[in-house]
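Lab intake sheet, docking and co-folding queue.

SAMPLE TYPE: protein with bound small molecule
LIGAND NAME: zinc ion
LIGAND FORMAT: SMILES
REQUESTED OUTPUT: full 3D complex as structure tokens
PRIORITY: normal
SUBMITTED BY: R.K., bench team

The fields below were copied directly from the construct record.
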Amino acid sequence: MIDAHVHIFPPPMIENRERLQIEDSWFGETFGHPKAKMRTAEELIASMDKAGVDISIVVGWPWQSNEHCAIHNTCLADAASQWPDRIVWLGIVNPAAAGAIEEIDRCTALGAKGFGEVNADAQEFRWSEPEPWLEAVRRIESANLPLMIHTSEPVGHGYPGKGLATPAEVLAAIQTVPDLQWVLAHWGGGLPFYELMPEVRSACANVVYDSAATSYLYNQAVFRRVIDLVGVEKVLFGSDWPVLGQGKLLERVRTLPLTEREMAAVLGGNAARIYCIGTRMRADTLSFPRINPEATL
Ligand SMILES: [Zn+2]
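RESULT FIELD (auto-filled):
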């Protein structure tokens, strides 16, 4: 059981929340709200134990400066070394800011299993304008690691964090670096529907989707529908804890009309394959082949 999308913070960042709200405008917008939760690795482990989650893939916060990113990454690496069987981490970088390449290399050496959750709105670039971010994203590609990015729906209700990384923007980036393993958080802002178009389907051969924040955005039927649109091998369970409780979302997913094999893939097998984790996972949950764009449509 893998939760492929949770956020934790280093205790010194939690203590300096007010200062960080001034230093980083996107953080200020999100965490200016007193109810927005910042949680530590210890609190995550307690939540995982309660919810029955074996492994969490943890991400930091999309800081504008790579200095803030580096502080956060060091904390994530520490958490993973303290709980090596429970925590896998992704390095956070601002691919469009100074110091990105060095931080990518440092995270790779520290054992990051990928990068994310990169957020174009927070980090002040556009996915459809590759020049500022391309070199850094190619570095991630050449390290053979996945990149998880925040996405937003072009329609529907507003909320803190909703931005411009909509399917059209994100698809432009995917087409620029098509061999990178892309992980689109929050169901790709609706991109799965467009995978019914053959050219989008083949452009998205190396794209998977996570379910982060589902109950804030969609009806639970989104799991079944997206599996039917893109194939079960492209769907990863992620809660977005502490935005959503791990246990509650997991309970709901377990009641959905999915086969045992689909459930195993969504609740861990796919994340293990994408992030190359789980030498201790059961072999049958790891056996999905690399996606063939023509195979299911
Ligand atoms: Zn997100």
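REVIEWER NOTE: The chain is about 40% helix and 10% strand.
SIGN-OFF: pending second check by T.M.
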